[in-house]
Amino acid sequence: MAALSPRRCTALLALLVAALTAILVVPGTPALAADPEGGSKKLRANLEAAAKGYDQAKTKLAASKKRQVQLAATLKSAQGRSDLLTKRVSAVANRSYQMGRISTVMLLLNSSSPDKFVERVQGLDMLAQVDSSTLADYRTDIETIRKAQTALTAEITEQQRQVTVMERKKKQAELALAEVGGGSAGGFIDANSPAAAPAPRNSDGSWPKESCSIKDPTSSGCLTPRTLHAYQEARSDGFTHYTVCWSQRSSGEHPKGRACDFSANASTFKTSAATGSDKAYGDRLAAYFVKNADKLGVMYVIWYRQIWMPSTGWRAYSATGDAAAVHTNHVHLSML
């Protein structure tokens, strides 16, 4: 058999490499890397359901209280007008009693001249118009009072219902967090945290439904407008350390463009727990998102083995794993 030329050997080697690559890759795409956030897919699904349910109930409760204030003002105004009209209605009733049909006719017949007769007719007509208007206004205010009182009763019932829903969603979150500890924790609070500019809401106070539609400035992926707003607000308020938001994972908010990981270190994600100035930075950032949660639409914050949700406050997050899993090297932000 003739010896192969170096050129043919090179070509055959390339084909062999390609064949081996095809054998290794074609059968299927490699599974996504394990989620480094700690916890489980079930935990994150339960937390999302509890957080969204709590937020919706809270929004409805706030709207009901706002309507209650408006109805109370309407009721007070109608009652005030009704009280003033009561005296006028009493006067109309007395006049009607004193000036029956016969006395009115006699009053006209006793006119001393045609001019006086016309004058009295006009006076009686004007009096009737005034009486009719007074009675109509009175009836309108009484009906307004009745409707306002009924509506106020309905709003109080609605508020009681939403408070019950909020309490149920809080318990749902607490049960979910039991998987990773969930006990009470000291948390991270800073009364001097900057105030973020609020993200846009719907006219009823709820959050708009958003998709991962905007380029993520921290990765090759995308973000929801609300998540991008939170990221930009944090940076504008001085939190400029290394951050990555979108990433491809098997669960959680990162692949949906609704989460960001803010490193405690200025330039990278360290593989060890933050200390010193890095730890202080993380403390301040976690407190910042908590303080501005209602303005930004925060679902939860995780930092240094603790998790914060609007319904539960700070709770223990005792996940197992490296610094990323227990969140001692970065602040995790999940958005509604």
From TrEMBL:
Residues 192-211 are annotated as: Disordered. The keyword GTP-binding does not apply. Pfam families: VldE. InterPro entries: ARB_07466-like_C. Keywords: Signal. Residues 1-33 form the signal peptide. Residues 220-327 form the ARB-07466-like C-terminal domain. This is ARB-07466-like C-terminal domain-containing protein. The lineage of its organism: Bacteria, Bacillati, Actinomycetota, Actinomycetes, Micromonosporales.
